[in-house]
Design brief:
The structure is a single chain. By secondary structure, this protein is mainly alpha-helical. It has a single domain, classed as Multidrug-efflux Transporter Regulator, Chain: A, Domain 2, CATH 1.10.1660. The protein is built from five helices and three strands; from the N terminus they run E-H-H-E-E-H-H-H. The protein has a three-stranded antiparallel β-sheet with strand order 1-3-2. Helix 3 crosses helix 4. The protein is elongated, with a radius of gyration of 18 Å. The N and C termini lie far apart (44 Å). The mean pLDDT is 90.
Amino acid sequence: MSYTSAEAERLLGVKSHVLRYWVEEVPLIQPRKDASGRRVFSGRDLRLLLRLKHLLHERRFTVEGARAQLERELTGEWQDLRAELDGLRSQLMELYFLLES
């Protein structure tokens, strides 16, 4: 699925100049241009923008820090942590079912 700039702005709750700034500062976000030259964002771009907004607004990262965090998350540095979390989640589910029975 793809989203126009206006749709992305509405979904993210940000103004157009903020969206343009984020796209300039975070090279991982790569909207393509349509035949009219307007930016079109992919679902991946929108997910990255949502994550970026969370890092900036909720976690209080700087733009540089948020960009670095996104890069770490996407480069696989977090794969080991995710595997460990999946294992813990499985153990918790087992404990939960033991307690329920």
